[in-house]
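Let's do one together. I've listed all components of the complex below, 816 residues spread over six lines.
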Amino acid sequence: MIITARLTFSAAHRLNNPKYDADWNRRVYGKCDNPRGHGHNYVIHVSVKGKIDAETGMVIDLKVLKDVVRRRVIDRVDHTNLNEDVDFLQGVIPTAENLARAFWQQLAPAITEGTLHEVLLQETEKNSVVYRGEDE
Amino acid sequence: MIITARLTFSAAHRLNNPKYDADWNRRVYGKCDNPRGHGHNYVIHVSVKGKIDAETGMVIDLKVLKDVVRRRVIDRVDHTNLNEDVDFLQGVIPTAENLARAFWQQLAPAITEGTLHEVLLQETEKNSVVYRGEDE
Amino acid sequence: MIITARLTFSAAHRLNNPKYDADWNRRVYGKCDNPRGHGHNYVIHVSVKGKIDAETGMVIDLKVLKDVVRRRVIDRVDHTNLNEDVDFLQGVIPTAENLARAFWQQLAPAITEGTLHEVLLQETEKNSVVYRGEDE
Amino acid sequence: MIITARLTFSAAHRLNNPKYDADWNRRVYGKCDNPRGHGHNYVIHVSVKGKIDAETGMVIDLKVLKDVVRRRVIDRVDHTNLNEDVDFLQGVIPTAENLARAFWQQLAPAITEGTLHEVLLQETEKNSVVYRGEDE
Amino acid sequence: MIITARLTFSAAHRLNNPKYDADWNRRVYGKCDNPRGHGHNYVIHVSVKGKIDAETGMVIDLKVLKDVVRRRVIDRVDHTNLNEDVDFLQGVIPTAENLARAFWQQLAPAITEGTLHEVLLQETEKNSVVYRGEDE
Amino acid sequence: MIITARLTFSAAHRLNNPKYDADWNRRVYGKCDNPRGHGHNYVIHVSVKGKIDAETGMVIDLKVLKDVVRRRVIDRVDHTNLNEDVDFLQGVIPTAENLARAFWQQLAPAITEGTLHEVLLQETEKNSVVYRGEDE
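Okay, and this is what the predicted structure of the assembly comes out as:
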């Protein structure tokens, strides 16, 4: 059984790898490399897998799950600049892929009922990523 | 190949385990334990897995699939109180998890082309569960 | 200029006019008259009309608007039974129309920047009502 | 008859009035005043009002309408920092209200079939503004 | 008070004015002039305006409204070719504008509680039209 | 890590197997067998699975992925009649299942970073199919 909570946050970011020059970055990231940044309304779906507790009828208390996601992710990234404001994203190029993996790393140890199954991150209504901890 | 039908129903429910006292229920279920109930517009996605029939180009006739879901689930839960009105939910705490499993049990034997792959149940736009028969 | 905030709540209700007998109610309200109730995820859009303040660039501070809607409507109706639990709905048949008008009456006096322009209430993804204070 | 085109763009912004000090700005704009910015996926609905042309069956050619919106708004704001990168927003605090009015001013003179009726701008799924040229 | 019902249908169409030659039609309608047609999932929102009936709490019974829309529009256009299959569209170029007006003409005389206020027709998620009977 | 791009197209189609007579086709496909066709706004989600490139932070450049989908699928099916206009669909009954498999066959060889993981095709808001190459 998988239970999923959906939360949102809004943030600015710039895609740029400082190890490479402006030409490389413009070629790889296009307009996402704008030095003054751009931004998104991100949607995050956090899924936990586990057995249904016979007494509560729940895999994990949804309030507990949402509190974990708010405390460990949303409150630290909402209304921020992802390149500059977030401690656990220092040195991370804030692509959707890297964000999903970083969010997973923040969330996985904090899920104590069931286990973290999936982090789905929508950057826009036209693109999203799914991470299930495969590279850990 | 997986084919999915999306249907909706509206129902009232109360989360409460009668084996426990009011304090336990309030602590576990919070405002979902309101004795006079609350309610939701549920969205159910029913997925069937199978091979494409070469003659019809279909895994299962979508009309047949929807008829099964309507007859075995929607018509029995729509505009009801899930705690009191539904025969196959007697004694079941109507959490999204328990509902998804109960709907699976109603649907799985009735799918005769392909096999039931997944029941996804959205309780609100902010939470959902997925059940694939794992505990059966 | 019109600014709109979107909020949600979940509630149970039953459509029934106690002045009439069971036959009348069943004929008028159909399955919505189920004595044990059913429920919905309601979506409310509250719109305020006014001039843009030159200093703030805002018609009304969205946080203020949302706080008003939460305090005067959402916190009093969310996870309730609309027929029994809500003081300002005593004696009101909780149709979408009556709810929208009752919410308007709760909100209009509390909007102090600009004026309340519209309450849009979605009961399901297939039906909604709009009220703009016409009958007041 | 009103015809509406829906387009999207992503941008960073900061809400801050440089005429006032940090305290005023923090009190008025809260976390939207983050100096390094945040961002949104904006959705813009541009509506044109007019009569149906009897020969074409159209109020305005949708391709023409979309081209105007792309050329005069989307291409100039997408993947930008609204505080710094956009010529027609110099000196404008980029609230949704001010953006909608600025977009109206860019669009109104360029609509040559029918007349601009409404600019609806969604900043997030929870808030939006509507401008119909009232203050012009 | 305005009440709105949302319904859907799927249909094929081709935009072409037989009074003009192929060049004119290609220039005006582009790929929408494909001789073998293309198609859409249309969404129709039908709004009725009226006073709330004190006995029922309703402007119009939603079931009655939906039945009217189904009988007079949906059942006649769903899974059809709009250029060829629909009696009340004979000789009408099936642009969204012309469809909305034709649907209005079918619906307005059939609304007996309240009056028809608006027909909103979405052709795709990116474009829609609104008709309120202005040219009648 | 899985990355998904969402694109849309509009097309007409008719479900009919020419090997069988009119009765068989009407029984199997119902109103979808209308000889003059009907149509849909299709939504396609194309998912690619792979490792995050450490230099770019991406599994695959989203622009590259979208270009592949546009060139190999969207540009060939948008605003067409799927039964008649599309070379790679000759002889294919255009059910959602057959379309998803045909799109997979067009896309899989063209994905050069990561591998094609899934094609999800929504025909309407009420039904969709998922194909992951199982029968290849």
